[in-house]
Design goal:
mainly alpha, two-stranded antiparallel ribbon, 13 helices, 2 strands
Length: 334
């Protein structure tokens, strides 16, 4: 049953990044859009994510519940030593959701709308930034569980160049996903061209920040190069991600916009596989050289069994309705 739980955990993290990340990316795209085009971009974005944006947080909730119930030691370690970036990320999620609702459904249209807009776009940037910082921290080997002062225990574990570079890379990937998704939502050619330019911009940013990740990994002794390029699965994933990117831009030039979402999702999936496969099942790398493994830090058998069955049965109840929700709101209004 532990394999079932680990599978659900990995899928929840992946789907939150692909779906929730694209939602965050919509705000990032709006942030880097000129003032004269923001209203049009905002309208297209709202139509695309408005009906389903809250449903995407389900994947984050599932991941947190799985860690809390099935891997309490991993959950505790992250909650204690990464409580600052976790708190900032959660505040960003709350601020973004609140601003999204009020800027669209507030009964009074006044100057507060501009405040809501700013909260939305800046929290859309900050949230994936700290999500990436957290992800970088758990694999960086900088978390010091033996620290005897506040800074070493709760600050330097995440406030380092590698984690920050991963955070910026995450922001660029979210912006790229959103731009690709929004191309298919645009009915006007001019609007499509603007999102294509945003996708190109975010693609270049992802390459630059990706290079920063490897540079920071080199100087901070994170064996990222070994994980990615000296492992057959990791190397294969990088090659597949590169080929899918080439195919994506080729199809975009041909005007085929629908399949782009699948290719973008596949590319990001391969990037995550390349980074994480080599050190699986280790979930957290600690500064003392040890690691917290998903198999070693797992809860007692009865807890795992109950959670496993709950996830399996719950998926049969939730996933069909979630799929129907996405299907209905993807239909164009006549």
């Amino acid at each position: 049953m532990e394999y079932v739980i680990i599978t659900f955990l990995c899928l929840a993290i992946l789907l939150y990044f692909l779906l929730g990340g694209a939602d965050f990316g919509a705000g990032i795209i709006e942030l880097f859009t000129s003032q004269k085009n923001r209203s049009k971009t905002r309208k297209t974005m709202s139509q695309a994510i408005g009906p389903v944006w809250e449903a995407n947080h389900m994947w984050l909730i599932i991941a947190v519940v799985i860690l809390f119930v099935a891997f309490p030691k991993i959950y505790t370690t992250m909650s204690v030593y990464l409580h600052i970036p976790l708190a900032i990320m959660l505040i960003g999620i709350i601020a973004r959701g609140t601003a999204f609702v009020f800027r669209h459904y507030d009964a009074v249209k006044d100057k507060m709308q501009e405040v809501y807009n700013k909260i939305f776009i800046y929290s859309s940037f900050i949230t994936p930034l700290f999500l990436g910082i957290i992800a970088g921290s758990v694999i960086s080997g900088k978390i010091d569980s033996e620290a005897n002062n506040f800074a070493d225990a709760y600050v330097y574990g995440w406030l380092n160049w590698f984690s920050i570079a991963v955070g910026l890379f995450t922001v660029a990937l979210c912006g790229f996903l959103a731009a690709i998704y929004l191309i298919g939502e645009s009915e006007e050619l001019v609007e499509q061209q603007r999102f294509i330019k945003k996708a190109e911009f975010m693609n270049v940013a992802a390459v630059i920040f990706g290079a920063m990740v490897f540079t920071a990994a080199y100087f901070e002794d994170v064996p990222l190069y070994k994980w990615v390029f000296q492992n057959q699965i990791g190397l294969s994933a990088v090659i597949l991600a590169s080929l899918s990117l080439i195919l994506l831009w080729f199809l975009l030039l041909k005007g085929k916009t629908k399949i782009l979402r699948i290719l973008a999702g596949f590319q990001v999936t391969m990037i995550l596989v390349a980074i994480s496969f080599a050190h699986f099942p280790n979930f957290i790398q600690l500064k003392n050289g040890s690691a917290l493994s998903l198999f070693d830090a797992i809860a007692p058998f009865k807890t795992v069994q109950a959670l496993g069955w709950a996830l399996v049965l719950g998926s049969f109840l939730i996933l069909p309705f979630l799929g129907y929700l996405f299907y209905k709101f993807q239909q164009k209004e006549e």
